Structure formats: C-alpha cells, structure tokens
Amino acid sequence: MSDTRSRPVRRAGGKAKRQTVGGSERGSNFPVVFIGALIAVVLAVVLLLTVAADSISGDGKPVGPSGDASSTATAEATATAGGPTSTVGAQTSTKTPEPTPGADGSILVACGDILAPLDKQHRLAADCAPNDLRQVAGGAYLRAEAAVALGEMFAAGKQEKGFDFYVNSGYRSYQEQVNTYNYWVQTSGQAYADRTSARPGHSEHQLGTTADVAARGLELEAFGGTAEAAWVAANAYKFGFVVSYPDGKEAITGYASEPWHIRYVGKGVTQQVKDSGLTLHEFLLK
Questions:
Q1: Which burial class, exposed, middle or buried, applies to 139 when counting CB atoms under 10 A from its CB (0-12, 13-18, 19+)?
Q2: CA-to-CA distance for 65 and 9, rounded, in angstroms?
Q3: How far apart are CA 252 and CA 231, in angstroms?
Q4: Which of 99, 96, 127, 92 minimizes the C-alpha distance to 112?
Q5: Which of 176, 110, 172 is nearest to 142 (CA)?
Q6: Phi and psi of 148, rounded to 5°?
Q7: Backbone angles phi, psi at 119, to 5 degrees
Q8: Distance separating the N- and C-terminal Cα atoms of the chain
C-alpha cells in the first residue's frame, strides 16, 4: 500500500518556509492536511473491515469447530478421505458407511482360528497367512499341527490298505485363490465356478489346515468313487479331519461334493461333528 501522507511543498526559487504551530502558514495548508488525514482514516477503516471479514470467513469456506482456517482444512481432508463430515450449525453429521460386514456382505473371521467358519458368508482378510507352514507328501504346505495329523492318517492308510496318499493342494494364498477362481470362471462360467471354487478370501485352503488328497495319480473328481475316497470318508475323523463338502449336501454347504477336500479341526471336534450328524459347515455355525 502506498504512503498517502503529503510531502513538504517547495516554493520556486527558495526554501520552504518553516511552519510553526499557530503560524501564518496554517490557513493556506489546512485543506491539504485535512484531506490527507481523511483519506488515511478511510483507508484504515477499509483495512480493518477487510481483516475482520477474513477472520470471520477465512477464504470464503466454512470454518471448523475452532473457527480457524486449520480446522477447515482438517475437515476438508477428512471429507476427502471418506471420513465424517459436518457443516457448521447443522444438527446431524454424515459419514461414508463402511461395508457391513464386508464389501460382499460377508463376515470377516479371525485369522489363525482353525475353527473359523469359512463359506460363502464368511471370509478371511487378504493378508491372512499362517506362519508355521510345513511341507507334506506331494509338495504342498499345511500348518504344523495339521501336517503332523495328516502324516499319521496317510501312514494308517498305507498300513491298513496299502494306499499311497499325497496332497494335491494345501495352503493357498489369497492371490492363488484369485487365480484359481478366475480360471474356473473363464473356462466353465460363473455358475460352475461358484459351485466348485471359493471366491478369494472364502476358501478353507487359506487357513493352511485344508488338503485336497489324492492317490495313484487320481486327483479331484477322479478321486471320487475310489476305494481311497471311501477310506478317507470313513476314517478321516480319527485323525482330526472332516470332509467339508460331502455328497448330497450342496444345498447346505453351497458347494458340490468334494470327497478329496478335508479340513483339520482337531480330533475332539471331529468326533463331535460325527456324533452330531451335521456337516462341518452347520456345526461351526451352531
């Protein structure tokens, strides 16, 4: 802002006369001084009004609860991030709702719980992964406790019947589930995929306690109807395993029969499941 005060007036050909209070020059310079003072006062008033307006409304946006610009910026950042937003003077606030209980309506279960229900209504977080995986016959991986129990079951099958079991598929990461599910969608269609393959996060394989067993090179559907499959159905519970998707229970489990798919839940629990006559799906949701 430029300075509006008047400078001393110089007379042509001589020095400016010294002005004294009550001197004879007051009369001739009074209008100039008065106008300069008046302009200064007006400018000061305008400046004060501008500062006052800025303090009230900031940069023209609603201020936050504390009345300063930083509160406004915080509120805007929160709103942009999808958090709660509010308007000054409003009685209610709005909040972008998070999916409840999940983006697909499913319930998130605890990672690491071997008794967690996993089905089309329950899922694991994408980053859930066991930290005690061990390799089993066939090269797949299972959690340590399940791996030991499966080794005992395979040894019993070998001793009793001469069966040579191995694991076709064990632990599957979330990304592996994405790849598997998408493969079946692309090759066999959505309806078939949803009957035979779990969507990412919904697979029991992510727990690290589930195995697809095979024998004699017979895997998946080829395993069904074999003597080995019948032995697994009759004896798996003795070692802490349950056939998750038994024949004739698709309406309950949501998946077609998979006699090769067994899940470890512990010997005590499998005995209870057997005695209840329920599928594992029903038992875990009791």
A1: exposed
A2: 55
A3: 23
A4: 127
A5: 172
A6: -65, -45
A7: -155, -160
A8: 79
Q: Domains in the chain, ordered, with CATH?
A: 107-284 (3.30.1380.10)
Give the pairing type, strands 241-245 and 258-264: antiparallel
Question: Which residues lie closer than 8 Å to 98 by C-beta, 6 or more apart?
Answer: none
pLDDT in tens, the chain (286 residues): 444 433 333 333 333 333 333 334 444 455 555 666 667 666 766 666 665 555 544 444 333 333 343 333 333 333 333 333 333 333 333 333 333 456 668 999 999 999 999 999 999 999 999 999 999 999 999 999 999 999 999 999 999 999 999 999 999 999 999 999 999 999 999 999 999 999 999 999 999 999 999 999 999 999 999 999 999 999 999 999 999 999 999 999 999 999 999 999 999 999 999 999 999 999 999 9
Q: What is the DSSP letter of 107?
A: E
- For the purposes of burial, counting CB atoms within 10 Å of the CB of 173, is it exposed (0-12), middle (13-18) or buried (19 or more)? middle
Both tokens assigned to 179: 């790849």
